[in-house]
Design a protein that fits this description.
six-stranded mixed β-sheet, seven-stranded mixed β-sheet, 39% helix, single chain, alpha/beta
């Protein structure tokens, strides 16, 4: 751990060692607006070294049994859990999220990712068929692919990084990971634990830096046969183009413009607090957050009145305050982008009922330069508006009325994204019917963000390619072979 003028200076983790970089970039504390960390500005040279280390480790790691790999994953989970508070504090400071969210969501889920895949790798089966008429038996076998390139985003840093690392190494691959340059600290902290769990050098390599330099070098590397990426649809398009000459295997988990559909028989006492959380949790910086709320006309006025009243109660401020509901957005550039959508909506004739530009935000002295924004509710907005069509990725949600089931399904599907949706109704037949017709990879009814990691996770349309989960991740991170035995 190195410091320069009280700044934390990170180093790449390559071949089991921390390696300094020739140049660095500043990383900001979103709650203060101050630089507090320096992150390696890696490029081709660093990625090349990491890929070579991963290639060298592959024969050793891939030859280990699933049980041996499982035991190491469980040990790593134990160590992260032991240091949960330190990881949570770092994640909150680095990303701007509340300490409560980091303690209860981010770090526990990172721990569970390792434990889940440590278990699931022990329970996969292969296929076998018999053709008695020709005296043949066919069976399949699966083997790790090689060096996996893993690129994770800034909104749920360790949570989503481990969601990729855990299945990749559980399956016997080695990895070169690139976290977001804006939220690199917890990845660096995790690397400090790898030696303690007995992970062979080179199995996990972490290269820090920007997408345009380090990320592109990883995507374009001919010896990295598969890329798992979570981030924006625009970046995914570039990854697809750059990886095409190498015919790489891609898993792309991308953006969303997720609808909540609230029918007039919904239980609003449950619906409103959950929809507030689905709209504003983690400052709205979750790909699964609700940003379009369709409310049946009979309860529209009541819902809007109660929803806005509750949104105004959300406390925004210093992320380290355990009573705060929302922390800071990730960066100055991002909060300016989010605010611009509110201004565009107003220019189009929409009404802002609470939040940005309507209510005042009082911040502690030390947070005056931070990137804070109140939960913002917009109404009287057209479906064609950019606020109803584009991913804002902030604490902004639009509330509009609808009349019929058929109408709202059509409107909910009228965007280029198809990641997640929520449906609120006490009619069991209706929730099944609507869920089947929504163009979304995930549909929650009368709840939000309840996840079984055994089941597929991913989106339709421009929300992604492929799925993640126990079976899907196993299939992505392994090659299948069909073997025929004549007897």
């Amino acid at each position: 751990m190195a410091h320069s003028k009280a700044l934390l200076v990170l180093e790449n983790f390559i071949g089991g060692k921390f390696v300094p970089c020739s140049s660095y970039i500043d990383s900001y504390n979103p709650s203060t607006g101050d630089v507090y960390c320096r992150v390696p500005d890696s490029g081709k040279e660093e990625v090349e070294a990491a890929v070579k280390a991963a290639q060298a480790a592959f024969p050793i790691w891939s030859s280990k049994s699933p049980l041996e790999r499982s035991q190491i994953l469980n040990k790593l989970a134990d160590l992260i859990e032991h240091d949960l508070e330190a990881f949570a504090q770092a994640e909150s400071k680095d990303q701007g999220k509340t300490i409560t969210f980091a303690r209860t969501v981010d770090i526990p889920r990172a721990v569970y990712n390792f434990r889940f895949f440590a278990s699931s790798i022990l329970h996969h089966t292969t296929e076998c068929t018999e053709m008695a008429t020709v005296g043949c038996v066919h069976y399949t076998s699966r083997a790790p692919v090689g060096v996996a390139g893993l690129i994770s985003p800034w909104n749920l840093p360790l949570y989503l990084l481990t969601w990729k690392i855990a299945p990749a190494i559980a399956c016997g691959n080695t990895v070169v990971a690139k976290p977001s340059e804006m939220t690199s600290v917890t990845a660096w902290m995790m690397c400090r634990l790898l030696e303690k769990v007995g992970l062979p050098h080179g199995v996990v390599n972490v290269v820090f830096g920007t997408g345009t330099k380090a990320g592109e070098a990883l995507v374009c590397h001919p010896d990295v046969p598969l890329i798992s990426f979570t981030g924006s649809t625009l970046t995914a398009q570039r990854i697809t183009e750059k990886s095409a000459p190498h015919c790489k295997r891609l898993s792309l988990e991308l953006g969303g413009k997720n609808p909540a559909i609230i029918f007039d028989d919904a239980d609003l006492t449950q619906c409103i607090p959950v929809t507030l959380r689905s709209s504003f949790a983690n400052q709205g910086e979750i790909c699964l957050c609700t940003s379009r709320i369709f409310v049946q006309r009979g309860i529209y006025s009541e819902f809007l009145k109660r929803f806005v009243a509750e949104a105004k109660k959300w406390k925004v401020g210093n992320p380290s305050d355990p009573t705060v509901d929302m922390g800071a957005l990730i960066s100055k550039e991002h909060i300016e982008k989010v605010r611009s959508y509110v201004k565009k909506a107003q220019a189009e004739g929409a009404r802002v009922l609470c939040g940005e530009g309507v209510d005042s935000l009082a911040l502690p002295t030390g947070n005056q330069k931070g990137y804070f924004m109140l939960p913002t509710v917009i109404t009287e907005v057209k479906d064609e508006s950019c606020c109803m069509q584009e991913e804002i990725f902030g604490p902004v949600t639009c509330v509009v009325a609808f009349d019929t089931e058929e109408e709202v399904i059509k409107r909910a599907n009228s965007v280029k994204y198809g990641l997640a949706a929520t449906v609120w109704s006490s009619n069991v037949g209706r929730v099944h019917r609507v869920a089947q017709k929504l163009q979304s990879g995930l549909v929650w009814t009368n709840c939000w963000l309840v996840r079984d990691l055994n089941l597929p996770f991913g989106g339709m349309k421009t929300s992604g390619i492929g799925r993640e989960g126990a079976k899907d991740s196993y299939e992505f991170f392994t090659e299948v072979k069909t073997i025929t035995i004549k007897h």
